[in-house]
Design goal:
The protein folds into three domains: 63 residues; 68 residues, no CATH class; 71 residues, no CATH class. 60% of the residues lie in helices and 5% in strands. The longest helix is centred in the C-terminal third of the chain and has 26 residues.
Length: 240
């Protein structure tokens, strides 16, 4: 950041970075890919260490619901499936081991079906259902979820499932708004970035017509987003 920047410029810089991270994080990109995405899409240049630090701060201290959104902690997923506290899972599976490397080892045990491993013995001893350990392993590793429109995603890795939910939400809102625009009798020309281009006769267009367009767009978005629908801004342009 330029030390000659004014306070307002510094504030605008951090607001822009926060907005970019909030947009990028639900995509589930690894820190190395996140850096590339931010540089190409927002012209933000970050070191790998900075990307990890800012992501952690945003997830854990500001938009802390994002941390649960990813649901990629293998220890917590195991604990939920066997109905035990995470502390008990750690004591049973990682006595004296580094927790940083434990997650990868447990995933490998589950995917490779290493039935003689400590993890599989633990699951067999404490599982709270009659399902075989193989079924519980799949439940731990993979997940499915509902999109905002009620569709069920295919089962996949938790991060992939959340990414699909996020991208599906964008697609579902666009489709709902597009249908609402056409159903109301307006001529939808195309989608452009995060907006919709509607062709109207300029000589016959009144402020009331513009207000109606905004209401139609809001109604379409609310079918998917509910009360979280952002305000619609209608802008008149001579060409696009």
């Amino acid at each position: 950041m330029d030390p000659q920047q004014t306070a307002d410029e510094v504030r605008a810089h951090w607001l822009g970075m926060t907005e970019a991270l909030l947009t990028a994080l639900p995509l589930g990109l690894a820190p190395s890919l996140l850096r590339v995405y931010l540089e190409q899409e927002y012209d933000l240049v970050l070191q790998l260490k900075e990307a990890r630090l800012l992501t952690a701060i945003l997830q854990n201290e500001i938009a802390y619901e994002l941390d649960g959104f990813f649901d990629d902690d293998i220890l917590e997923r195991i604990a939920r499936q066997v109905d035990r506290p995470v502390r008990d899972v750690i004591e049973a599976l990682a006595p004296g081991q580094w927790l940083e490397s434990m997650g990868a080892a447990l995933r490998k045990d589950l995917t490779a079906r290493r039935v003689k491993s400590r993890l599989w013995r633990f699951i067999g001893q404490v599982k709270s259902s009659d399902d075989p350990p193989e079924v519980l392993a799949d439940r731990i590793l993979f997940s499915a979820a509902r999109t905002l429109a009620g569709r069920v995603t295919p089962r996949g890795w938790p991060l992939e499932t959340r990414r699909l939910q996020y991208l599906s939400a964008v697609d579902e809102v666009r489709k709902s708004v597009s249908y609402a625009i056409v159903a109301a009798g307006f001529q939808l020309v195309t989608l452009e970035d995060d907006g919709f281009v509607i062709e109207v006769e300029q000589s016959d267009t009144t402020d009331g017509d513009l207000e109606l367009i905004g209401q139609v767009v809001d109604s379409g978005a609310k079918k998917i987003l509910g009360e979280l629908t952002p305000a619609c801004r209608v802008v008149v342009v001579q060409c696009w």
